[in-house]
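step: validate -> pass
step: tokenize input -> pass
step: predict -> running
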Amino acid sequence: MTTRRTFMKGAAAGIAFCSCSLIDAARAQQPAATRLPVTVKGQRVKTVDLHAHCLIHDAVALLGADSRSVISPVKGAEEQFIVVADRLRQMDAMGIDMEILSINPFWYRKDRDLAAEIVRVQNEKLAELCAAHPERFGAYASLALQFPDLAVKQLEDGMKKYGLKGAAVGASCAGDDFSDPKFHPVWAKAEELGAVIFVHPQSTPELAKRFKGNGWLANTIGNPLDTTICLQKLIFEGTLDKFPSLKICAAHGGGYLPSYAPRSDHACFVSPANCNPDIALKKKPTEYLNQLYFDALVFTPEALRHLVAQVGVSQVVLGTDHPIPWEQHPVDHIFATDTLSDDEKIAILGGNAARLLGMKQI
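step: predict -> pass
step: emit ->
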């Protein structure tokens, strides 16, 4: 069997998105790049990126003097303010047909009124963008999770009123784990609606002192660790038993959990004193990984091979972190993993995402 990839290559990686109307107008006059299809065995594959970011100017502006804190001092951060023509050119260069956009939460410690307004603006603007470009963009709703009753309403509005695909959340909320019963109404509503909950970490603040120094460890280690803790809590506290149909997709390949998951199966056997006898899990901890979803942002073919072996190919989706330049050639990354069959590559490139989100796949 042969596998072939055809799409527009070239520059676009360094373009910055900004709000200058003159620059926006000039860019709007530029011809769009030709988007050539990704194919496998001659079959057209719609590539769907479930891990892509943006920011909304009007929402960030609600923070006033604190707005600069939202734009992290990392390469590509300013690009999260979308200029649509530029974003589409970049997606074409990467071989991405559709991005499912998310906004990393910066409102979890804000008061109810401010958090509600930030979420309202973001969800409305995301819906407008998706409606204008339905073949290129979908989006996750934002939620003010620190107020679970409000988050339930926002999730329902996001799905029913705005046509969003689910919700993007951190890996905890203002120091509280998602296994806390106060969040159960949110997960119950997500399960009822069939909403995808996209978990994107926000480092591990408790370790901030140890992350200081070279290597951007707050992200390099802190982000995957935050996701690992989140998922382990949902497993060991019985949350996934309580909500077995909850659709959770974890960024960055699920952090460290898939890399060392079998240790989880031994913990309570080795040290029962450190496990709660009132929580009787319905299956082995590692088996819960087969009901979660994970993006393929793990950088190497060997890492992707192992992720698939641990969680199952049906649970892996394409993810880039775009516009943050972690993975500039996501389609190439999937094709370079020669342990995957053609059908498995098709599934990761877009088939699994289409099934998860209830989308039509081509």
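step: describe -> The mean pLDDT is 90.
step: cleanup -> pass
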